[in-house]
Prior knowledge:
This protein is α+β, with helices and mostly antiparallel strands. It has 5 helices and 5 strands, in the order E-E-E-H-H-E-H-E-H-H. The protein has helices at 70-85, 92-102, 117-128, 161-168, 170-183, and strands at 18-24, 30-36, 61-67, 108-114, 136-140. A 3-stranded antiparallel sheet has the order 3-4-5. The chain is flat and about 70 Å long. The two termini are 43 Å apart.
Amino acid sequence: VSLLTQARPWEPADRPRRAAVSSFGISGTNAHIIIEEPETEPAPVAVAVVEPVAEGAGRPALWPLSASGLPALRAQAARLRDLLAGQPDSDPLAVAHALATTRAALSHRAVVVGTDRTELLTALDAFAQGDDVAGVRTGVARHSGRLAAVFSGQGSQRVGMGRELYAAQPGYAAAFDEVCAALD
């Protein structure tokens, strides 16, 4: 890496050419970017071919459901059952894909497992009715993420800024103490 002090030609090399800009703003807003020359010949894209699974082929399909509580989860199962009962040509794998990729992941979860449409709908119906079913697994998501609060101010530009803010602003001091107590 070298800092340019004057314009120079950007000649081709045996690797992609790169340029970078870093801007340090007075307000503390910083911007950084690296630009790389595109490839002259795009790399070939590998495409995986997946054969469709025929219904009844013995491979399970998974229908994931989620809701904010167990009663809502059972109600979600009932709504899905009612919807699919009116669509006899619906593909179980297409339903599985739609449920996995287009629905919210809420705290209470269930997955309905079956090898064909009839098995899936039977398990879905039984779960919706409140029965314990071999083809349904339930659980509650754990939120194990950790939270960090940073009151950085512009400390590198003005040493002691956070300490002065704490002393001068009771609202800031109360919020800071609350966070510290929660993390202790």
